[in-house]
Design a protein that fits this description.
Blueprint (H helix, E strand, L loop, with lengths): L1 H10 L3 H11 L21 E3 L20 E3 L5 E3 L8 E6 L4 H16 L4 E7 L3 H10 L6 E4 L3 H5 L7 E5 L5 E6 L4 H9 L3
Parallel strand pairs: 4-5, 5-6
Antiparallel strand pairs: 1-2, 2-3, 4-7, 7-8
């Protein structure tokens, strides 16, 4: 017991070790950055953990703080939306069976590849990795492809139809929400609001 206490006190001086230890003790996992996720199609196809926020209590108006959620890989690595502050973030809700989702995806993938600090989270709604992977490969989706099998993330963001995109500024505030397919011009307009 004394040895365990000594190790804990030694680690207390190191912020990242303390944070990782606290996360593990709370039943969570250490937080990573998107660059720590696998550098492959889908970035590891992380699952979604939404926490205690209820969609009824979430304000999605422009200027409101975006509700937090966590992307979790099979190996326990995770990242929260709040960890991404300082970067513009686009969350695109989509499904493989959705023709408008297919139409807009090449432009979204291009924007994600061209803008170095833009983080795009492609949140698939209520499908399995087996169904998602061929779509992600066909569109060369090198961004995190979140697997929202339960629909908890889409419920949190009050998604009523697909595609739906949420644009979050560098301060973690919602800049805009767009329901329906984005044309290239509309995508640029919404991205201008978070750059």
């Amino acid at each position: 017991m004394a040895a365990l206490l000594a190790v804990a006190l030694t680690l207390a001086g190191c912020k990242s070790a303390r944070d990782d230890t606290a996360a593990a003790a709370a039943g969570g996992s250490p937080h990573s950055s998107v660059s720590d996720f696998p550098d492959e199609i889908g970035r590891g196809f992380p699952g979604v953990r939404t926490g205690k926020d209820s969609a009824r209590n979430v304000d999605l108006t422009s200027g409101a703080e975006a509700p937090d959620f966590e992307l979790v890989l099979d190996d326990g690595q995770s990242i929260r939306l709040s960890d991404l502050r300082g970067n513009p973030v686009m969350i695109n809700f989509w499904a493989t069976w959705c023709p408008p989702c297919r139409a807009e995806m090449p432009d979204i993938v291009a924007a994600a590849g061209e803008e170095e600090d833009l983080i795009v989270i492609a949140a698939n709604v209520q499908e399995t990795v087996e169904a998602i992977r061929p779509f992600a490969e066909a569109y060369a989706m090198q961004m995190p492809v979140a697997v929202d099998e339960e629909g908890s993330l889409s419920n949190l963001f009050q998604v009523r139809g697909m595609p739906t995109s949420i644009f979050i500024d560098r301060d973690g505030k919602i800049a805009s929400k767009w329901e329906g397919a984005l044309t290239p011009e509309q995508l640029d307009l919404h991205l201008d609001g978070i750059r």
